C-alpha cells in the first residue's frame, strides 16, 4: 500500500530510531525515507553504534536529529555542540534546565561551526531546548521533585528562556504548543514527542497527542516511534498516519 506523499506533512514527521543495531536502523531508514522528513538518533542507538550511524546518514543524505539532550557546564556543552555540527548534524537539543548561559554557548558554538563548515550564513542549525519530558506529569513534579508548579507552566517558562538564549525552539508536549507560540511567537519552533496515532498504545508516555491534534495545534515537528517501528507493515501504518493527519 502506498500513498501520495504530502511534502508539507513529510517535513514535520520525525521518526525515532530507537533500535539496538545498525542493521535495524539502516532498514528503517531505507524503508521509510520517502515518508519521513527527519530521523531521530537518540541515546539508545547512539550509545550502541556511535558515529557509525551518523556516517551512514551523512552518506545517504538524509536529515537527522541528534537527540542527546546536552546538559552540563556551559563550556562542556559549547565544545560538544561544536563537535556535533562538525560531525554533520544540523539538528540537536540541549536541556533548557541547564540555564541561559549554557544554551547561549551551545547556539553560538553551533552557528560558528556550521557557518565555517558550509559557508551558508543565511542558514542556521536547528537547536532545541528540552523543557519537561513527556513522561513527567504534575503528579511526578509534585511528589518526586517537590515542585509545586504545574508542568505546563514550567514548560512556558523554559520556552521563554530558550528563546532569550537564542535557541531555534523547544521540545515540548503537543498540549503546550499553543501557549508556547503565544509566548514566543509563531516562528519559534516546537518539536513534539509523545505522539501516538489514535489507533496505537500509549506505552510509557503521560502527556500525549495524536499526529493530527499536534499539527492542528501548531507543532512544527512530531516524533513518532514505536507505533511504527514495532509494526510489521510499516508502510501501511505510515499510510494510516498520513490519512489521519489529512483527514482523508
β-strand number = 8
* Helix proportion range: 40-55%
Low-confidence stretches: none
Tell me the number of helical segments per DSSP (H or I, 4 or more residues long): 12
**Residue share in β-strands:** 5-15%
The total domain count is 1
Following the backbone from N to C, one meets helices and strands in this order, namely: HEHEHHEHEHEHHEHEHEHH
Shape: globular
CATH homologous superfamily placement: Aldolase class I
CATH topology: TIM Barrel
Largest sheet: 8 strands, parallel, barrel
Integer-rounded radius of gyration? 17 Å
Q: Please, what is the oligomeric state?
A: single chain
What structural class results from the helix and strand content? alpha/beta
Termini separation comes to 15 Å
Strand order of the largest sheet: 1-2-3-4-5-6-7-8
Q: What is the mean pLDDT?
A: 90
CATH architecture descriptor: Alpha-Beta Barrel
User: Can you tell me the CATH class?
Assistant: Alpha Beta
In short:
The protein has 12 helices and 8 strands. With 248 residues, the chain is α/β, with parallel strands linked by helices.
Amino acid at each position: 500500500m502506498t500513498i501520495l506523499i504530502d511534502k508539507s506533512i513529510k517535513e514535520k514527521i520525525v521518526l525515532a530510531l530507537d533500535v539496538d543495531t545498525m542493521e535495524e536502523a539502516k532498514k528503517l531508514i531505507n524503508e521509510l525515507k520517502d515518508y519521513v522528513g527527519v530521523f531521530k538518533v537518540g541515546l539508545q542507538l547512539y550509545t550502541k553504534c556511535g558515529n557509525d550511524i551518523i556516517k551512514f546518514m551523512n552518506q545517504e543524505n538524509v536529515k537527522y536529529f541528534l537527540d542527546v539532550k546536552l546538559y552540563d557546564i556551559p563550556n562542556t556543552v559549547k565544545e560538544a555542540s561544536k563537535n556535533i555540527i562538525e560531525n554533520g548534524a544540523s539538528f540537536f537539543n540541549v536541556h533548557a534546565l541547564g540555564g541561559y548561559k549554557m544554551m547561549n554557548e551551545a547556539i553560538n558554538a553551533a552557528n560558528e561551526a556550521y557557518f565555517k563548515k558550509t559557508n551558508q550564513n543565511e542558514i542556521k542549525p536547528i537547536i532545541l531546548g528540552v523543557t519537561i519530558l513527556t513522561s513527567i506529569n504534575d503528579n511526578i513534579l509534585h511528589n518526586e521533585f517537590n515542585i509545586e508548579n504545574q508542568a505546563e507552566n514550567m514548560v512556558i517558562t523554559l520556552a521563554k528562556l530558550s528563546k532569550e538564549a537564542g535557541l531555534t525552539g523547544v521540545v515540548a508536549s503537543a498540549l503546550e504548543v499553543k501557549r508556547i507560540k503565544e509566548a514566543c511567537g509563531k516562528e519559534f519552533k516546537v518539536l513534539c514527542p509523545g505522539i501516538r496515532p489514535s489507533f496505537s498504545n500509549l506505552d510509557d508516555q503521560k502527556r500525549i497527542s495524536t499526529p493530527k491534534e499536534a499539527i492542528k495545534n501548531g507543532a512544527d515537528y512530531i516524533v513518532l516511534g514505536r507505533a511504527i517501528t514495532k509494526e510489521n507493515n510499516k508502510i501501511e501504518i505510515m499510510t494510516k498516519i498520513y490519512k489521519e493527519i489529512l483527514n482523508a
